[in-house]
């Protein structure tokens, strides 16, 4: 009997069943927790992806132009489709996240499953929440101009856990909780292969441009044709130019190289350019004039295909009376100036913006005496062709070699090197800054970093430079809304997530 009791006492068969019975609730509980963690993680992942997609879609429209808030709302409402699962919404827990278009007039709004606010800045630390101090101005016209980011929040959605936590707490609501997500995205714009030049927006003060803005000027041949005298005199009024910091240094040689090079290897961001406006007229003159076949720069990789400038002998052109020379067909006529620049009576922009009334008929008769004016250039009045259009027509239709009545042809002289095959060799690219507004806000341009650019633009250089301080140009195109897309090869626009 004792032996039987002792054998039973030491018999361990079936002990696993006892242990499993004891630990089974814990095993089931941890399994349910693992399932719940997977489900809630999937739900949060779906919501976060939705927030990211809405933010990126909205941010891509924040170009600082009027209507950007409405366009941002429209992008979120029409371009994004997201689906989430494992919430308490609907019988299956699967639902679509949507947005809407409540009007585009408020800096903060909501529609569908999301809410959003347009921001002008972000807190210094990613761990710091956005506050009203980061919001764009509530006045739409001001707020749209300064908006750089959008914060999107997905409305909290319920999640019901399988793990029966309510049995432990006695609270039936403890089995569920809300899951939400937020994302912040911004719009960045920049250009590459650009010359290190910035221009103070010639159209910033609309009271002296006849009410015309930069964007309006870019859209109209009548306004693009206005000849502008860019001046580099060390001041920063509308129409003045200076220089940006170059990644290769900012000495005179580097500046000349960047102005003479057909494809400068540097990039600039609209969010902020670094100014380095030290003035040196020699590199400016030599660098730019090399584009006209005037062999003044050892850094030039070649002149333009079309260098017609109204003079066979450049030394004679410099020494002559410029006004008389440009209007005398027997000596040769370049893409001459607007009438008020010739007479010295310009009134817009401190006397440095013309009315766009250059004498195209005289230019054509002097430089293509055996050809009738083509239909593409036959406009008059408001439809008079721009100088840039004439320059490109001569290249595109192979009439650069036509001899003028004075004997000049458009090809560069043999000593100037092989012409660059890029037709737009005579374009000057640069950042356009609202210098008046920036100075009013306390911006100093001497060695200043991260100065916001309104646009990047291209200007056609209408004639060679004599003194290195004044550059005669026509506006050709701008980046962003209002532009015609000719700068797309230089432009790098992208929306990116910041938090």
UniProtKB/TrEMBL annotation:
Residues 16-60 form the Putative Flp pilus-assembly TadG-like N-terminal domain. Keywords: Membrane, Transmembrane, Transmembrane helix. InterPro entries: Tad_N (IPR028087). The chain crosses the membrane at residues 15-35. This is Putative Flp pilus-assembly TadG-like N-terminal domain-containing protein.
């Amino acid at each position: 009997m004792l032996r039987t009791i002792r054998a039973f006492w030491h018999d361990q068969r079936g002990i696993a069943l006892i242990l499993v019975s004891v630990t089974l609730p814990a095993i089931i509980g941890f399994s349910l927790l693992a399932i719940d963690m997977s489900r809630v993680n999937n739900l949060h992942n779906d919501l976060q992806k939705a927030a990211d997609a809405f933010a990126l879609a909205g941010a891509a429209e924040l170009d600082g132009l009027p209507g950007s808030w409405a366009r941002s709302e429209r992008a979120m409402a029409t371009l994004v489709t997201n689906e989430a699962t494992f919430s308490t919404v609907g019988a299956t827990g699967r639902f679509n996240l949507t947005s809407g278009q409540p009007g585009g007039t408020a800096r903060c709004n909501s529609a569908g499953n999301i809410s959003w606010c347009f921001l002008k800045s972000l807190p210094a630390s990613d761990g710091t929440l956005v506050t009203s101090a980061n919001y764009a101005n509530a006045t739409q016209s001001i707020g749209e101009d300064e908006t750089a980011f959008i914060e999107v929040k997905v409305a909290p959605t319920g999640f019901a856990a399988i793990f029966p936590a309510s049995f432990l707490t006695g609270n039936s609501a403890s089995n569920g909780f809300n899951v939400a997500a937020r994302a912040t995205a911004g719009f960045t714009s920049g250009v590459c292969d650009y010359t290190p030049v910035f221009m103070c927006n010639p159209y910033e003060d609309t009271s002296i441009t006849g009410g015309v803005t930069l964007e309006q000027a870019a859209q109209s041949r009548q306004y693009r044709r206005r000849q502008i005298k860019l001046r580099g005199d060390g001041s920063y009024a509308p129409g003045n130019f200076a220089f940006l910091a170059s990644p290769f240094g900012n000495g005179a040689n580097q500046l000349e190289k960047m102005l003479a090079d057909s494809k400068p290897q540097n990039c600039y961001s609209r969010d902020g350019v670094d100014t380095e406006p030290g003035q040196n007229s020699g590199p400016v003159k030599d660098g730019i004039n090399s584009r006209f076949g005037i062999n003044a720069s050892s850094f030039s990789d070649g002149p333009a295909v079309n260098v017609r400038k109204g003079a066979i002998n450049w030394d004679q052109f410099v020494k002559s009376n410029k006004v008389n020379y440009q209007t005398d067909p027997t000596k040769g006529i370049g893409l001459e100036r607007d009438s008020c620049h010739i007479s010295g009576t310009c009134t817009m922009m401190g006397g440095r913006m013309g009315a766009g009334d250059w004498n195209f008929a005289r230019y054509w008769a002097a430089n293509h005496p055996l050809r009738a004016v083509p239909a593409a250039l036959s406009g008059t009045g408001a439809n008079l062709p721009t100088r840039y259009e004439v320059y490109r027509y001569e290249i595109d239709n192979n009439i650069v070699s036509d001899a003028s009545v004075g004997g000049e042809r458009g090809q560069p002289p043999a000593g100037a090197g092989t012409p660059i095959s890029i037709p737009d060799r005579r374009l000057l690219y640069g950042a356009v800054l609202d210098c008046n507004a920036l100075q009013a806000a306390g911006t100093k341009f001497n060695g200043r970093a991260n100065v916001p650019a309104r646009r990047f633009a291209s200007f056609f250089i209408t004639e060679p430079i004599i003194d290195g301080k004044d550059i005669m140009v026509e506006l050709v195109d701008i980046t962003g809304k209002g532009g015609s897309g000719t700068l797309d090869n230089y432009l790098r626009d992208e929306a990116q997530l910041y938090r």
